[in-house]
Amino acid sequence: MRMSVITKLLVAAGVLVAMTACAKAGGGATPGGGGPGPGTPQPTVQTGPPLDQEFDIERGKSTVLSDSDVLIAFREVSQDSRCKPGQACVWEGDATLELTLAGSAVQVHTNKQFPMTAEAGGYKVSLVKLDVPGVVATLVVHKV
């Protein structure tokens, strides 16, 4: 059975599309260990304070605590019902912070009626405060 020229072109186009999709998704091999290729944005990781010391972290940023190898990332504020300045509110509301602690996804809250601490990988993170726009969180991490 012989393939027609059109069939060969369609197969070649399909292979090209699949290879391009894999490369864009990070599935292609890259020299030197298979990490992200050139042009792939790298997350911002900063060296932070030691354990047991309060520190500020911006939404979208990561920090490695200076006296351990624990990485903490402030991914996002998934919900925020806190009373904004100048508003009259019956309830103080709550904001939920989505964090990554020692490789595990965890949540902490601003309202004391909900968990303000979370544990993962032998560490505990506590939320001290979250600024009103929800951009900068003050956290402290302890070894458990």
Describe, in plain words, how this protein is organized in 3D:
With 144 residues, the chain is mostly beta strands. The protein has two domains: 1-40, no CATH class; 45-143, no CATH class. It is 14% helix and 38% strand. It has one helix and nine strands; from the N terminus they run H-E-E-E-E-E-E-E-E-E. It has one helix at residues 5-24; strands spanning 45-48, 55-58, 62-65, 71-80, 95-101, 104-109, 117-120, 123-130, 136-143. The strands form two sheets. A five-stranded mixed beta sheet has the order 1-3-4-5-6, with no helix packed on it.
Which features would summarize this protein structure in a list?
144 residues, mainly beta, 2 domains, five-stranded mixed sheet, four-stranded antiparallel sheet, 38% strand
Alpha-carbon Rg, integer: 23 Å
Tell me about the largest β-sheet.
5 strands, mixed
Number of strands: 9
The geometry reads as: elongated
For the biggest β-sheet, the strand order reads 1-3-4-5-6
**Class by SSE composition:** mainly beta
Into how many domains do the coordinates divide?
A: 2
Could you spell the SSE succession in H and E letters?
HEEEEEEEEE
- Helical segment tally? 1
Helix content: 10-25%
Tell me the span between the first and last alpha carbons.
68 Å
| Chain oligomer state | single chain
Q: Mean pLDDT across all residues, rounded?
A: 80
Indicate the proportion of strand residues.
35-45%
Low-confidence stretches: 15-37
